[in-house]
Amino acid sequence: MSEMTEQKRQISESVKSYRSGRIRRRELLQSIIRATGSYAAAHLFLETSGLAATVISTIEAQNANVDAESVKYPSSGQFEMTGYLVKPKTPGKRRGVIVIHENRGLNEHIRDVARRFASEGFVALAPDLLSRLGGTGSARKPSGRADEADESGRVSGDAEAIAALPLYGVIDDLKSTFEFLEKHPSVEPTLISSVGFCWGGWRSFTLATAVPKLHKAVIFYGSSPDSGFDKIQASVLAHYAEWDNRITGNAIWTKRMMNSAGKTFQYYIYPKADHAFFNDTGNRHNPEASKLAWQRTLEFLKS
Amino acid sequence: MLRLRTIFCFVAVIAIAAGAASLMALSSGPQRPNGTASSTVLAGTVKSAAGQVLEGVVVSAKADGKTITTSVFTDDDGRYYFPPLDKGHYRVWAQAVGFETGGSEIDLGTPEAQRDFALKTIKDFTRQLSAPEWMMALPEDTFEHRRMKAIFRNNCAGCHQPNFVLQNKFDAEGWRNIINVMERVGIYGDPPRLDQAPFPLIRAFKDELVKYLTEMRGPGPSPMKFKLLPRPRGESARVVITEYDVTSNSNPKEYVTQDGSDWTEGVPSAYQSRGPHDAEVDANGFVWIVDSQDNPARTISRLDPKTGAIKDFKLDARGARKGIAMRSHGIVIDHKGLAWFNADGGLGKMDTKTEKLEWFDPPSTMARVGGTLDVDAQGMVWASTDEGSIRFDPAANKFQDFKSVTRGNEGRTYGVAVDSEGNCWWAQMNYDIMGKSDIKTGKSLEVRFQPRPGLDELATPQDKELYAITQADWNSAPVWQQGPRRLGADKKGTAVYVANWWGDNLAKIDIKTNKITYYQYPNTPGFSGVYDSVVDKNGKVWVNLMHADRVARFDPKTETWTEFMLPSLGNETRFIAVDNNKPAVEVWTPYWRTNRIARLQFRTNEEMRAIKAQLQAQRQ
Question: What is the CATH architecture of A66-302?
C-alpha cells in the first residue's frame, strides 16, 4: 500500500469514528496530525478538504448547542473578509467577542474556541485574517514539516503568508470585524471585546489602542504594542507562560506603561507552561493552565 | 562594498629549496615553522620612534594577490622572525596598541629579507583597544556605575563584542535609536518587526542604558580610564598565526575588506559577508568550514591551507527557502573521515575523501538537529536539539533523542560534547544547567551551575523582580547568569570542560562525581568572552575568547593558562578546533564576523634557533 493510500485510509477511518461519536474532536485532530506528519499539514488538509467546515464544525456546533455559520464582510473598501460566527441558540442581545487566531490562520482550533465562547453566551466572531491573501489554507501551502519554527525562527505554511501581511492592514481588518459585530442584531454593541492568541495577542492589544469603543481585550501569550497606551479605554488581561521568556519578560514593562497611562492591566504567569499552552491541538498544550486561563478569561469578560 | 580581487589559487611556484638538492613544488602558504628550509625567512626589529625596543608587537605579512596573512610577534629584544615564506611582493605591517600602524613592502626571494619598524605613538588609541580593555575602563566607583556596567555587559555584548558598541560616541538620541533596533534585531541580523516582543531586559533597562552610554561614550567628558593589557611574551610571542580570507558566501570572487587587520580602523562594523562558524581539519589537512548565514552557494566549504583555495558545497534548501543553501552552524569529523554537520534541522554528511554529500532527516516525532555536534568512540553522531540532544547511528541509520529534564521553549541547547563513557553533555545556556544522557537507560540527567558569586548585590529589588520573570535569553541575561555556551570533553579522561559565557570561566565537570570546578579566566578581566572549549590529544584544554580576540590554553594538571593574541581585531570567534593529526597540535578558530579563519602554530625555542640559523645562512 502506498504511503498516500495509507494516509487516506487512516484519515477515513478516523473521520468515521468521529462521525459515529467513538472518538472526540481532539482525538480526530491528533489522528490527522499523525497521518499527515505535521500540525501544519493536518490543518491544511482540514481546511482544503472541507472537513473542518462541513463535518467538524457542524458536529461540534451541534454538540455545543450553538449556531455556527461562515460570514463575509468588507474591509478597507477593497477586501472581503471571511469569518466564523457562532452564537447561542437562544434569542437576545449578547456580549460580542472577536477571536483572533495564531499565526496559523483561522483553523479548527480557533473555531473551537469561538464555539466555546458561544456556549458561554457570547456571540463570537473569528475572522480569517488571511482573507486579503486568499484565506487560510489557500494563501500558501505548508512548505515545511511540524508546527515549529526552524532554528532561525522562521515558520512554514500559512505562517509564511501571515508574515507577509501588512501589520496595520490587519488592524484595519479587525476594525472592520468590530464594526460588523457592532451592527449585528444579536450583539450588544457596547460590550464587544477581543481575545487574541500568540500572533493574535499583539493584534488584540493593538486593537484596543485603535478602537476606544472596545470593551475589553485579552491576550494569550502575545507581545505588547510599543505605544498608544493612552488611547486605550478597554481593560486588558494577559495570560503569559513561564517558559516564554521573550514575551512574558515584558509583562512588567507593559504593566508600567499601562499604569503610567492610568489604564487597567492585569496579567498572570502560568508556571511550567510553554508558549501556546492553550492550544489543545498542539504539542505544548497544558490542560491545567488552559483551564485556569479560560476561567479567568470568562470572569474578566463577563464582569 | 566588497572589493574584487584576483586569486591565483592553484599557481605553483617552483623554488629551489635552500640547502636541498631537489626541486620542490611549493604553494603560496607559509611553511611549517620547523619545515625543511625553503624560501625566505623575513625578520627584523621593532622599536618605538624614540628608540625603545618593543616586545610583543604583532608583525603581519601578506603577499600581493594572495588571501593568506602570516603574523608573528617580536621577542623581548624586539626581534621578529617569520617562518620561511614563498617569494613574492609582500605588504608587511607592525601593530601595537598606542602606536600608529607601521607599514612597509618587501620583495621576498631577493637577498633582502629585513624590515625594521620605528613605531610612532598615537594620541587616541581607543579604536585599537580590545574588548577587555574597554570593559576595564568602565568605572566601578559607585553602586550605579557597577550595576549599569553589569547590565551593559550582560545585555549589550552577547551577540557582538563590547568594543563594537563602545568604539563610537553618540548623544542620547543616537544611543536610543541604536537600542531601539537592538532590542528586537534577530541573532542573524533579521530585520526587527514591531509585533515581535523585544528582548525584555534590554527593553526594561533602555532608559537607564541610554543615560549610562551617553555618560560613558557621549559628547561630554567621560569617566572612563584606559589601562593597556601587557603585550605577548615568551611562548605567546613565538606563535605563528596564519589567517585565511574566506570567499564571500554569495560571490566566490569577493572577500571582506573591513577585516580587522588594521587596528586603527577599530572593530569591523560593516555588514559584509559573514558566516564561517565552525571548522574542523581532516586527516589530509583540509579544513571543512560550515556557514551559518543565508546564502545562495554554501552550506559547507573546504579550505586548502596550502593554497588558501576555497571550494563550496551546497545542500539545497527545501520549501520556502528553496534556491538558497541549507544553513549550518556546527561540524565534527569522525575517525572514518566523514564530516557531520547540521543543515536546516537535519544532519548533513560529507565524505571528505570522495566529496559525496548526504542529508538525513530525523523522524517527525523528534526535535530537529541543532547547531553543535560531536562523535563518540563508537562513531555515533551527537547533536544538540531544542529539547536536549539527539544521537544518530550511521550504521543503523537511526536517530535516538534525549530530552532535557528541565525543559521549556527557552531552554534550548547550545553546546554538546560526548565524554569518554559515551554519554552526551549538553548546555542549557538559558537555565545554567548541563543535561546529560544516560545511554544505559535512555534517560536524561542534569547538573546545575551555581550563580556567579557576588552579583546578587548588583541587583536592586526592582531588578530582582524583573529577573525573576524574564530569566535569561541567548544573548541577554540576569547579572548572575553563568551561561554555559559550548563545551569539550576529554575523550581519554573523566572531565568535560564547559565554556561559561556570562561567567567568563571554564567549568570542569567530573563525569564520575558531577563535581564542578570553576576556573575564572584570569588574564583579561572584564569580559573575555569564553565561548568554546576543546581538549587536544595531550589533554590540554583550548578556549577561544570571542571578546578578547585571543585563544587560551588551560593545563588541567597545573591549572595554569597560556594566552595567544590574534593578529586582527573584532573577529568574533565562536568555535575552536584542534588538529590532532599533526605531530605538534595546531589550533584553528574561524572569524565569524570578518569571514576569515585562523591557524595557530606553536614554535619551540629549538625551532626558533633553527629559523635564526636559516636566516644567518640566507644572509651569507
Answer: 3-Layer(aba) Sandwich (3.40)
